[in-house]
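ARCHIVE CARD
Drawer: 12
Card no.: 0347
Subject: one protein chain, sequence and derived structure
Cross-reference: see card 0346
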Amino acid sequence: MFILFCSTFLFVLFSDPFVFKRIMAFKHVLKLSSINAFIDDNKIIKRGENALESSHVKKMEFDSDLQIIRGEVFASMKDKSYKVSIVLEQNGDIREATCICPRGIKCHHIAALALFGHYRISVTDKACAWNAPPKPKDGPVKCAEELYPPKPYTALEGGVPEASINRLKERLRSFGNTVGFTWLLNEESINPLENRFAIIEEIISSKDFLEATDKVSVFRQKCAVDDHSIKDIAATTTGQVSNEKWFLVRKFRLTASNFGAIIAACQRNRFPVSLFKTLLGEYNLDGIKAIQWGRTHEKDALDHLKSNYNLNIRPTGVWLSNSGLLGASPDGLIDEEEAIVEVKCPYSLRNNQLSEKLKNLNKYIIFYDDEGNLMLNTNHHNYYHQIQGALHILKKEKCYLCIYTLKETIVTVIEFDDSWKENLSVLENFYIKQYLPKLLEN
C-alpha cells in the first residue's frame, strides 16, 4: 500500500507541472541552518521550539523590502509579551536580532520568532502579517494545581532543629568530596560583582520595591553604585553589542546617546510620546542601515586613530553614574591621557569629502567656517551632549572625536566642559519625575 501511495504521489507530482511548481515554490526565507548558526545554543533553540509549540508567538510581521521580521512573543509562564526584531541578510542569514526581555540578545523569544518565520515566510512572500487568534473570553484557564490544590503536608512535625542540620553538614564534610550532595550543603557564596549589577527591571519587580510606601527612595537606594562597582561593571560589559551583560546594564537607564534629546525636552518642558518610545527601545530598528554602517566601520576609524596618532586605545563597556540612573559607553579609553574616544561614521556622508561637505554646515557636531577653521557645535547638537555626558560620568579630561568616511577622516579633541555638569541633575530629575512613571506603566 505504501509503495502504491508513493508511486501515485510521484506520478502526480511530475506529470502535472503546475503542482510541481507550487510545491517547489515554497522556499524558506529564513533557514533552520541560519537560525542554528546565529543562536549557537541548543538549549535556547529547544526553549524556542517549546515556546513555538505552546503558541507563545503572539504576532509576526515581515517586511520583504527591508528584510526585517518583527513580532511579539509571550514570556514563559507570564501574562506579558516581549517585542522581538530580526534583521536578515539578503542570503537569508540573520544579521542581528534584539528582544526587549532582560536577556536582550540570543534569547528563546528570538529563537521562537525565527522558527515561526521559518515555517510561515517564503521567498515569494511580500510584506505580510500574522496575529494569534483571540483568546476565549471564558476567563483564564486554570491549571490542575489551581483546580485541585494539594493538601498541606510536612514530613516532620515541628521542623528540623538547626543544630541537627549543622551536625549532618559536618558529618558529610568529613567524607571529603566523595559525597556528591556535599556541594549543595556549602554556604551560599556571594558574588559581589553580581550584587553590584543593579538591573532596573529586577529592581522594579522586586518585593521591596512593590511593597514600599516610598518607592522613589527604595528605587534610588537600589540603583546607587559606588566607584569600585562602576569600574567592575565597565570591565564586565566590555565588548558592548557582543556582550549580553552590556544590554542588561543599559536597559531602562538613560544612556549618553539620548542625553541631547532629553535635555532639549526638559528645556521646552514638553515630553513627546516618541521620546519615551525611544528610551524604552521601541524604535531600535530606525535607521538600521546607518547603524549597521557605523558598526561595520568603527574598527576602521579606531585603526586610523591608532596608526596616525600613535594612541593606545583599549575597549570598554558601560560606565554608570553614582546614582545608577545614567550610563555612557565610549568607543574606547586612552588611559595615558585620561581621555575617551568617540567614533562617528555618518551614513549620509559616507562618500563625501568632509572638508568640503562640512563647510558652513553648522547643524553637525563640527563644521568649517568661511575662513576654513574647524569649529565645534556646542549649542544644541546631540553628539556634544553625548560626549560631555560621557566625560562627566567617566570623570575624564577630554575626548578624541573621530569622524570617518570612505573619502576622509577628521579627528578633533573636545575638552571637558565644567559648565555642562548641571545637566546631570536635569537628567536624573527627568528620570524620577517623567521616565520612571512611564517605565512602571509600560
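Annotation on reverse: The two ends are 59 Å apart (CA to CA). The mean pLDDT is 82.
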